[in-house]
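Q: Got a minute? One more chain.
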Amino acid sequence: MMSQFFIRRPVFAWVIAIFIILFGLLSIPKLPIARFPSVAPPQVNISAVYPGATPKTINDSVVTLIERELSGVKNLLYYSATTDTSGTAQISATFKPGTDVEMAQVDVQNKIKAVEARLPQVVRQQGLQVEASSSGFLMLVGINSPNGQYSEVDLSDYLVRNVVEELKRVEGVGKVQSFGAEKAMRIWVDPNKLVSYGLSISDVNNAIRENNVEIAPGRLGDLPAAKGQLITIPLSAEGQLGDVEQFKNISLKSKTSGSVLKLSDVANVEMGSQAYNFAILEDGKPATAAAIQLSPGANAVKTAEGVRAKIEELKLNLPEGMQFSIPYDTAPFVKISIEKVIHTLLEAMVLVFIVMYLFLHNVRYTLIPAIVAPIALLGTFSVMLLAGFSINVLTMFGMVLAIGIIVDDAIVVVENVERIMATEGLPPKEATSKAMKEITSPIIGITLVLAAVFLPMAFASGSVGIIYQQFTLTMSVSIMFSALLALILTPALCATILKPIDGHHQKKGFFAWFDRSFDKVTKKYELILLKVIKHSIPMMVIFVVITGLTFAGMKYWPTAFMPEEDQGWFLTSFQLPSDATAERTRGVVNEFENSLKDNPNVKSNTTIMGWGFSGAGQNVGIAFTTLKDFKERTSSASEMTNAVNETMTHSKEGATMAVLPPAIDELGTFSGFSLRLQDRANLGMPALLAAQDQLMEMAAKNKKFYMVWNEGLPQGDNISLKIDRAKLNVLGVKFADVSDIISTSMGSMYINDFPNQGRMQQVIVQVDAKSRMQLKDILNLKVMGSNGQLVSLSEVVTPQWNKAPQQYNRYNGRPSLSIAGIPNFDTSSGDAMREMENLIAKLPKGIGYEWTGISLQEKQSESQMAFLLALSMLVVFLVLAALYESWAIPLSVMLVVPLGIFGAVVAIMSRGLMNDVFFKIGLITIIGLSAKNAILIVEFAKMLKEEGMSLVEATVAAAKLRLRPILMTSLAFTCGVIPLVIASGASSETQHALGTGVFGGMISATILAIFFVPVFFIFILGAVEKLFSSKQKNPS
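A: Always. Here it is, folded:
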């Protein structure tokens, strides 16, 4: 036997242990740190820009073409697209979890290449971007000017030129979304002056095009050269204009008097910003910022550190009067969470050792498990590194749960050695040798069972599967290590460290009292047990009732995906009516910022105007509010969001909504549920909108929702310009001139590029602001007719007012609308989702729906759960059957499981927690642990029965013998999870979800098991014996 070998050679055992320690210590620094493993399905985003175009135009000419190609990409889960009035289209393709993002990105790029030629020229000129990044923001990097010496345009230009490209190179950064725009040569044309000189906007555009070109003049004396040419010199000519003065001097036409009409006579030329879409307020002061999104699978903490280091490096060259800031960063929370869990781990260890000291009254005995447990954990770290796992909340919780189990194996050995030394008076070495013979098979049994319990979890698919795998790996590996050490190191330690017990030695003081009381308890237990065994049928009835209650409870009990965590910050989104300008949006933002100004809990607040997670436009905005440290604040993040929502209901206009970030950043941008309503029968947009309104109305009356909203931009007024082509022909006006003048004056016309301080920047023509505020300004614009006369647009254009969507959304290639909601406080997300499905069923035919983001993952986790539990139980049953070479014995062990689940359900319900992913993991742990207690009793009962005792005697004797180790291991485990149950601060919700269930389950499994297991054993084996004896009597 292995253990006998190591009892003789303790040094060898130590060498093995030291190797495990070494590998563990070497791998810890190499492990990446994250809050959660990368769970989200990888995403590839495609963005296209078509300045000035309506959502419908972009949707028809860009999005539908790209989508057609996307459908053929490998491993695609779903894709969605939005286009809005800011002239941008965003298409995001989401892939199955575990897909290689780089490959997916290349795939998408190749598909786009196929349609690129069919896209409008402007879109191609601006370039299509294909990036892989997770949807949430990791951090915002801002630049502000404390003394106000730089304007927003200067700050933004600096950011785009010098910072954005640098940040993109930091490892782990997937995408840098810059909210500032770089500078551009802006030419603000005054239409009235043009008319007075008899020019049209097209003349201006053409003059700039002709004057600002690159020239490639070649060289003097180039080959083939004339004979005798001895030198060759390259030529250069300034074709492109480089500064404002040169642009001002572009000549438009010569006047009759001989003087030249310059661009500066009809337009104001200046260095402005390339786009004026966004405005950023940092604690109420103007600034510029870029948001950093992680590349899929990257490590948040490392990336954030990389970004901070890069900023320190860039600080050195920052001009006087500018300063960097990081107003929003999710990484510190990750760090706090991990530190928190490591504290929990240490607390758990301490508690476990206190319990052992209590039972074993001897430091030497307690020392053995104390040496073995950390070694098993260190071994687990090295396996984690090999498997490519990270140190995250899940793997660490796995370790907290595993501590109780690891110590178990050691306790079982030590306790048995102690008992043999005490009762038979053998010296430590022989006692250990004898004890190991008795105990090797239960240890292997327990290990196999516990490892087997976690295996089915690894088969779960989707994001949930990834979460489960984190746990299963850590737990099964640490259990394997602990069993290995229980057979190698523990016996070697027992044989060397322990002292022989002196038979006449009397215990004194507290321990003597403890032993006496424990003996009383054991005697009492034996009496109760004998009574219980006589009434095995009523006991079985009670058992059936408990089981029934448990499963009924689980069925009606609210489900959720993950607990909502106070992460130390929250998001607020602002949405105003579709015709609101940035000025009105700023009004609402100011109200919001004033409500936070004097709040002692707020550390900083950054608002991005013109941008939101659901779309861009002057009428939207989003704010990131970072709260102070947990120790320094009085209210939680959810109290803060409720307060903000309360105050902002009274705001002047628009809808303001504060929400908590989701449990896992990558799965969406807020916590709650999200779905897409789809038009599946081509009913058209009006029908889809009508269905959405009907759904909103039903949801508003429903008590299960806190709020449900439409996650997109609302419909708005629209003026459509009808151009009379017949009249154009009569007047001799070209259609191209009309379209040019409208897009240049109202939109902006990107002409070409010019070099500015070593960077090519755009030249943009647009009518000056005061001449494009009213509808009549458009109708007064002039176009040139064929014989030189100027025709006013009002003659050929008729305006029509109508309603049009500001945004087009598509999901999996069908028109769709995004709907999101937050369930009410007493409703779980699972219930809310089912309710939503019922409401949608009442909508007209042809309207379908699909869950997306975190909701899709929750749906998957719900459907898998029952299957996984059943699979776990089956696997445990089969492993036991193989070990005991019998079908009856494992059955008597398996019947314990519902008792444990009963306790877990009661505990969680009494605390009002939800049935989420963490509870499910706790549940599976309980299956393994409750089976473990039963194994200890059953194993001994079987042994004693084979020695010739009757069934009842053997069972009672075994139960009495094993009572002490069972109580000890269970107490050790329960104490190990106490820190989880009472956790506070960072990631406390997750700890409660995990700890509470396991705590309750363990208590009920222990208390009920010590009475029920003997009953099951006797009941089942008795029944089996009766069956077989009756068969033997009358052989057929």
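A: The CA atoms of residues 253 and 899 lie 94 Å apart.
Q: Perfect, thanks.
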